[in-house]
Amino acid sequence: MRKLQLAIMVLGAAALASVSDVRPAAAGPYDFPWCAQGIEAGYPGDCSYRTYAQCQASVSGRLLSCGPNPQVAAAPPPVRRSRKAPYHE
């Protein structure tokens, strides 16, 4: 009976491990288009800003400026696929 319980627990753990989806966070340190750059932050800097306005608000009063994220600027544009309805006769 003990072996059966152990086997069920092992199979359950294996099933759970195969179903779980482990991925890194969607937004890494270089995923956003704007970076706070300067002596304090280095290069490419703190690239955690979605908009230029967010970056400007963050660098206000500091010896930093805002610039485009080189990782995002050099990336190829995303491929857009059309969403046409399937052809039916």
- Let me know the number of strands: 3
The largest sheet has its strands arranged as 2-1-3
Portion of residues in helices? 25-40%
Largest sheet: 3 strands, antiparallel
Spatial shape: flat
Mean pLDDT: 77
How large is the radius of gyration?
Answer: 24 Å
Low-confidence stretches: 22-28
Count of DSSP-assigned helices: 3
Which labels suit this protein?
3-stranded antiparallel beta sheet, 34% helix, alpha+beta, 89 residues, flat
Q: Would you give an account of this structure?
A:
The chain has 89 residues and is of the alpha+beta class. The chain has a domain of 52 residues. 34% of the residues lie in helices and 20% in strands. Strands 2-1-3 form a 3-stranded antiparallel sheet. Strand 1 and strand 2 form a beta hairpin. The radius of gyration is 24 Å and the shape is flat. The termini are far apart. The relative contact order is 0.15. About 8% of the residues have low confidence.
Short overview:
This protein has 89 residues and is α+β, with helices and mostly antiparallel strands. The chain has 3 helices and 3 strands, in the order H-E-E-H-E-H.
Fold blueprint:
Elements: H1 2-19, E1 34-38, E2 42-49, H2 52-59, E3 64-68, H3 70-73
Antiparallel strand pairs: 1-2, 1-3
